[in-house]
Amino acid sequence: MSFHTRFAFRFSTVIIVILAATSAPSVFHRLASISRQVLPSTVKHPSQSSTMSSSYPKELEVALLAVQRASILTKQVFHAKSKGTLTKSDASPVTIGDYGAQALIISALKHNFPSDEIVAEEESTDLQQDAALKDLVWNLVKETKLDDPSAETTLGGSITDAESMLNIIDQGNSKGGGKGRIWTIDPIDGTKGFLRGGQYAVCVALIVDGDVKVGVLGCPNLPVDDSAPLEGGIGENQSDAEGKGALASAVKGEGSQSRPLGTGKLQTPRKISVQSISTPSEAAFCESVEANHSSHGDNAKIAKKLDITKPSVRMDSQAKYFSVARGAGDIYLRLPVRGGNYIEKIWDHAAGDLITRESGGTVTDIRGKSLDFSQGPLLTGNTGVVAAGSAIHAQVLKVVQEVLSVE
Ligand SMILES: Nc1ncnc2c1ncn2[C@@H]1O[C@H](COP(=O)(O)OS(=O)(=O)O)[C@@H](OP(=O)(O)O)[C@H]1O
Ligand SMILES: [Mg+2]
Ligand SMILES: [Mg+2]
Ligand SMILES: [Mg+2]
């Protein structure tokens, strides 16, 4: 029995909105060419730049390119009229973009690191049972390529056929744990945000013996400009037009970087860091859009106690970690919903946790414990998340614990 079965993530398909199979390839082809036109041009290949001095240079390069390529696929779906949406048994959505992005990322990781294990969010069961849906995903996957042939070669090129694609999707079924090299993938984090035109992230991290060593986030709807102010509201109708699309990365002990997302060769990265504020009253919160993912009421009480007057900015996905890491936001709280018993998944946090810490932030749970990625696919040792610049984290955590009555 697979990991997904045991953790009850299997799909009970309720809704299927399917693109007309005949029109899909031309739509995707046209959108692929649009995405190539609107994004900035290439500056430098990573093998000539910052990844050379890294202790994980190949892992970083492959993760960056794989996230970039998968992000291009998600952008094609984002622009399509229908997104082939299914509802999973936990009532959360999955789209052809989630499946396609996962297939492309696993294919690239397995080509370069065949003996590494992978813990990924999705599984192929529903595609196996629905030929039309499978064809839609396959049409996307086979059409999506980076502009740069040498980057494509690095990723191992295309997947050969639709059956291999299903097999590849299911190679993300490792049980995880605290030993060896384990990648974790969230092909689209914030699928609800993706569907409503808000923020979402393509997320990849490498965990070695339980410790996150490499993290990459592709955020097609975030501004390229690290100092751009956070956009308010719930992040609806964000666009991935010119000036949007950012790629964040970090290697343990080597700091974190941001660069334009791009479509081919990796562009020149910039170092990012959290805001240098020393008092929480100057801070701005990033919080989840969905009140059943993180308690908005408790967040508001904590903000009041910290004398925070700036309104919270709600956005989906690990774009919240990226925003704190580059100083656009200051505090990300993910507070357990009262009466709920949800346990966080490693793919929702691994990359963002490392990128925030490597930017000068501190990330703990509500008890002040570091996030523990050695326990399998779930963060069973943690409750909630408190991420903030290291200068204010202790003050924020103290108030979180007061408001939530944490012993
Ligand atoms: N009940 C509950 N509580 C907490 N978290 C949950 C819950 N249900 C789902 N999820 C996970 O939330 C992921 C999306 O997180 P976000 O921060 O984007 O949430 S929000 O939609 O903005 O509120 C989402 O990730 P994706 O499925 O990749 O979108 C889920 O893994
Ligand atoms: Mg999901
Ligand atoms: Mg997620
Ligand atoms: Mg997801």
UniProtKB/TrEMBL annotation:
CDD domains: PAP_phosphatase (cd01517). GO terms for biological process: sulfate assimilation; tRNA decay. Its cofactor is Mg(2+). GO terms for molecular function: 3'(2'),5'-bisphosphate nucleotidase activity; metal ion binding. It is an enzyme of class 3 (hydrolase). This is 3'(2'),5'-bisphosphate nucleotidase. Belongs to the inositol monophosphatase superfamily. Keywords: Hydrolase, Magnesium, Metal-binding. InterPro entries: DPNP, Inositol_monoP_metal-BS, Inositol_monoP_superfamily, Inositol_monophosphatase-like. Its EC number is 3.1.3.7. It catalyses: adenosine 2',5'-bisphosphate + H2O = AMP + phosphate; adenosine 3',5'-bisphosphate + H2O = AMP + phosphate; 3'-phosphoadenylyl sulfate + H2O = adenosine 5'-phosphosulfate + phosphate. Mg(2+) binds at E121, D186, I188, D189, D348. Residues 230-271 are annotated as: Disordered. The keyword Endoplasmic reticulum does not apply.
